[in-house]
Write a structure and sequence with these properties.
By secondary structure, the chain is α/β, with parallel strands linked by helices. The protein contains twelve helices and seven strands. It has a seven-stranded parallel β-sheet with strand order 3-2-1-4-5-6-7, with helices on both faces. It binds NADP nicotinamide-adenine-dinucleotide phosphate (NAP). NADP nicotinamide-adenine-dinucleotide phosphate is lined by residues 9-15, 33-35, 38, 50-53, 71-76, 99, 101, 131, 133-134, 137, 291.
Length: 295
């Protein structure tokens, strides 16, 4: 019998591509979204109303489901995700692929650490996809600086980051959910290279054929610009935390896991910018739905 996969976060950066990647495979797809109206009619799959904060929506979402692609939306409390994971286990879901973050196993402060443990305590087969920094953050959070100021404005110092393309993460999710050999495993998903933001700015300049710089702002200068844009303090603190990790050289580790799973090299930054060149031009709207985190 054809298996059924529930995709959460299906309108998000990774989830939208998981739906596409699964549609090439012999599975039925359940697309769990808060507002079914936001999902294009061209998308393959059964669209159902689903909200982590509304347990009354979980029953229909979990009915006759064999596997789950699980995303923790940044705005949802980890306890809600934990309760949902337990509900999935109770109704007999076989396996779960969880979008986690690289280093989560060692960092007790990040919600992913706690959620991973909750998943591992269930009877479900799990695969933890511990992703590095998404290339798509440049398209969402930092697009305005690139388009309006011709600069990549992040407080990452000269630290390197092993950027990964969300489309590659999505393909690996489809693989681990539909092929054998990935039960109770964790993968560190990075791109094929670690780049500092000066090198990223050079790639943007080459591909867009316009001057994009990296002014290498301090944490304070970055924080001030974000405050002028009335960004919430929590958001600014999160950004500073993330870029401090890069600044300290702790975001640079490149692994072979993406290549091994995909059977090809994961996408490079240059390919990402080429594919999205139009989205980085002034007259085009930002790609994808707003995350609430746009800078
Ligand atoms: N950005 C990075 O570099 C990075 C790196 C490693 C790991 N991660 C992790 O990736 C995850 C985010 O993934 P993403 O970037 O693909 O997501 P995203 O673009 O932030 O989108 C969030 C998704 O969650 C859905 N959502 C929000 N509230 C919901 C609720 N109450 N119930 C059900 N769905 C809800 C949204 O759908 P609607 O709004 O349409 O309902 C949307 O599809 C986070 O856990 C983050 O820590 C991010």
């Amino acid at each position: 019998m054809t298996e059924s996969i529930l995709v959460t976060g299906a309108t998000g950066t990774v989830g939208q591509h998981v739906v596409v990647a699964l549609s090439d495979r012999d599975v039925t797809i359940k697309i769990g979204v808060r507002d079914p109206e936001t999902v294009s009619e061209e998308i393959t799959g059964e669209v159902i109303k689903f909200d982590f904060t509304k347990p009354e929506t979980w029953g229909r979402a979990l009915t006759a489901v064999d596997g789950i692609f699980l995303v923790r939306p940044p705005v949802v409390a980890k306890s809600k995700i934990g309760s949902f994971v337990e509900a999935a286990d109770r109704v007999g879901v076989d396996r779960i692929a969880y979008l986690s973050a690289i280093g989560a196993e060692k960092n007790v402060l990040v919600p992913h650490h706690w959620i991973e443990k909750r998943i591992m305590a269930t009877d479900m087969e799990y695969t933890l996809l511990r992703a590095s920094f998404f290339m798509q953050n440049l398209l969402k959070v930092h697009r305005r600086d690139i388009v309006e100021h011709g600069e990549i404005f992040v407080p990452a110092g000269n630290g390197k980051t092993s950027f990964v393309d969300a489309r590659d993460i999505a393909e690996t999710a489809a693989i681990v959910l539909t092929e054998s050999g990935h039960a109770n495993r964790a993968y560190d998903l990075t791109g094929p290279e670690a780049l500092d933001y000066g090198a990223v700015a050079t790639i943007f300049s080459d591909v867009l054929d316009q001057r994009i710089t990296y002014p290498n702002p301090s944490l304070l200068t970055f924080g001030r610009r974000m405050r002028r844009r009335r960004k919430p303090l929590g958001f600014i603190a999160l950004m500073c935390g993330i870029y401090t990790i890069a600044r300290l050289g702790l975001a640079a580790r490149v692994t072979d896991d993406s290549r091994t799973l995909l059977g090809r090299q994961p996408r490079r930054m240059r390919a990402f910018v080429e594919d999205h060149a139009d989205d980085f031009r002034e007259d085009s709207p930002p790609n994808g739905p707003p995350t609430g985190n746009e800078a």
